[in-house]
Design brief:
This protein is α+β, with helices and mostly antiparallel strands. Helix content is 34%, strand content 19%.
């Protein structure tokens, strides 16, 4: 898809349709839609060239891969309290079993559990300076 902001919503809708067709649990599908939104947004804002979204699943995991032409790898940033950006990859990290960068920085991926009885990934902690999930 062309790197246009409107394509974030399109990617989210397409993901929802595919995951419904695959009969993934709603919790996993909800997490996946948010992860797709964040990764596609990052590719549009920070990447270059067309953006490609790929989804693959098995009985236990959903692999989300977003690729663009930039070789600058995605990286987590520290968001200021008043800042509007810098939280996307933190959300991806909180919702995913794991995430990372591949293809020389061109692809950012995240793995979402698809088991109905998926273990909770969200943790509750006391307030600190470091963001937590």
């Amino acid at each position: 898809m062309e790197p246009v902001d409107a394509h974030v919503a399109q990617a989210r809708r397409t993901t929802a349709t595919v995951l419904k067709h695959w009969s993934l649990p709603e919790t996993s599908a909800e997490d996946a839609r948010l992860v797709v939104s964040e990764l596609v947004s990052n590719a549009i804002i920070h990447g270059s060239g067309d953006v490609r979204l790929r989804l693959r699943h098995d009985d236990q995991e959903l692999l989300i891969r977003v690729t663009d032409d930039s070789t600058a790898p995605a990286r987590r940033r520290r968001a200021s309290a008043a800042g509007l950006g810098g939280r996307g990859l933190h959300l991806v990290a909180c919702l995913s079993l794991r995430w990372g960068v591949a293809d020389g920085g061109r692809t950012t991926y995240a793995v979402i559990p698809t088991l109905t009885e998926a273990p909770s990934r969200r943790r509750t902690t006391q307030l600190s300076k470091e963001p937590t999930c």
